Amino acid sequence: MIGLPSGWVQVSLDEIAEVQGGIQKQQKRRPVRHKYPFLRVANVASGSLNLQDVHEIELFEGELGRFVLRPGDLLVVEGNGSVSRLGRAARWNGEIENCVHQNHLIRVRPGPAISTKFLEFLWNSPAVSEQLRGVAASTSGLYTLSTAKLKRVSIALPPLEEQRRIVIALEEQMSRLDAALRSVRTAKEGSVGLLQSIYDDAASGRIADAWQGRGVDADSLRSGWEWRTPSDLTDGLKENIVIGPFGSNLKVSDYEESGVPLVFVRNIRSGNFKSTKYVAPQKAEELGSHSVTFGDLLITKMGDPPGDAAVYREPEDGIVTADCIRLRPSVRWNVDYLAVAVNSTLVRRQIEAATRGVAQRKVSLARFRNEIRIPVPPEYLQDRVVEEVGDRVSKVRRVQEALARAEAWAEALRRSLLAEAFAGRLVPQDAADESAEALLVRIHAEREAAGVTKSRARSPRRAPTQRKHTPDSAPAADAPPHPSADARALATAIQPTLDMEIPS
């Protein structure tokens, strides 16, 4: 076909693979006598399987042969709330004997015309992802696929030998890229721990150690610190420590696209108060006791664990929502220091210990007001502590921004590699390869000779002389021949590195 590399052919998925749904979990299938391992959506990630928690299901006569998974099968998740994660898939390698799968997983069993590893790489490429997004149906916010839709997925199929060369190149490049990404993500985790240590040093007074050698007596700077309750910080004024409105006082139907901004738990956790939900000015006036203004301290009262804190720095007043605590401290307390102290381990552990509940763990406003103890330095030291913290945090933030850019770059490179591979530009074509069309014709002829195939209609997407063929049940072998010098050179041409400037 026009636009395809030499030897390639455009086919639908059902021409080269068997597509089948799974077993619906029902009461009658409670595992009792004939129980077998049963994979669920929770077991399938993008490109990997999580087999730590595999359930069981009851099978009836004849079902095991129909539903059992075989090495090389691709498991595709049929639904997701995010269209960008729709159709995530992982290859089954026979990790558990006699394992079956639920109906929300679609099994794609490749035939002899396509390499199992090639199909897995292809499935996670932009070429297939875009098609899945295009055909996904949305019901109540859930995007879903079906076996019929998967069967119609269009694939540019290379010769089998070229598929193997592509797999070699991708495996080599992806292993380097994965190693680089692991390093980036390890560094990101370390940066979170570094931020926590900064907050802990500030709240414990250890931050004063950094001032030694500057003509300052650190011991004297650590003296005079006290434990204060949130109620102490507001001089006992209850109206200065409030939570968001209860239940019917603020409903989803009250939300507007403009007006007075609402502050949610997610805003506090991210430190980003750019709201997308508002209430009308009249409603905001009605909820005036729950207002938040520039310089207020906001704390989450629920979560795992609760106790994230951030200072509200928006010029426009807002309204806090449920599960948010608004603390308006007296003027003698530096609110930026208080945010640091609440985020420290010293205070977070107290808040976690004061939480109650099973389904939703929360800390009550009364316990927060009177039971939590916050370490505070004398007033004349608060600004100095905040200045030291700000300098350290800004360096860590710059590192985190660099790591985020590196992670985004690596993911973009992954997509680019896959796009190049499945456009026929990653490895060279070889005129000696049996073309994909010739392979399909040969497989069909062999199956007809064995009496295991039925005539099928010609595909309207192909030339009149090109026929559709039913795949054999066995997948193509993935053991590649020794690659040519040209293939090896191209496979190693791209060397992903993550160069970053780390601020001192």
Explain what the structure shows.
The protein is an alpha+beta fold. It has two domains: 9-177 and 407-491, DNA methylase specificity domains (Adenine-n6-DNA-methyltransferase TaqI, Chain A, domain 2), CATH 3.90.220; 226-376, Alpha-Beta Complex (Adenine-n6-DNA-methyltransferase TaqI, Chain A, domain 2). Helix content is 37%, strand content 15%. The protein is built from 16 helices and 22 strands. The strands form seven sheets. The chain has a four-stranded antiparallel sheet with strand order 2-9-5-7. A hairpin with an 8-residue loop joins strand 18 and strand 19 (309-311). Helix 6 packs across helix 11 and helix 6 runs parallel beside helix 16.
Summarize the structure.
The chain is an alpha+beta fold and 504 residues long.
Give the overall shape, derived from the CA principal axes: elongated
Q: What number of domains?
A: 2
From the N-terminal CA to the C-terminal CA, the straight-line distance is 56 Å
CATH C-level name of the largest domain? Alpha Beta
Please state the second-level CATH architecture of the largest domain. Answer: Alpha-Beta Complex
Oligomer: single chain
Structural class: alpha+beta
Uncertain stretches: 455-474, 479-504
CATH fold group of the largest domain:
Adenine-n6-DNA-methyltransferase TaqI, Chain A, domain 2
Helix content: 25-40%
Give the strand order of the largest sheet, numbering strands 1, 2, ... along the chain.
2-9-5-7
The major pleated sheet works out as: 4 strands, antiparallel
Number of strands: 22
Mean of all residue-level pLDDT scores: 85
Question: Number of helical runs?
Answer: 16
- Strand portion, in percent? 5-15%
- What name goes with the CATH superfamily of the largest domain? DNA methylase specificity domains
* Radius of gyration computed on alpha carbons: 30 Å
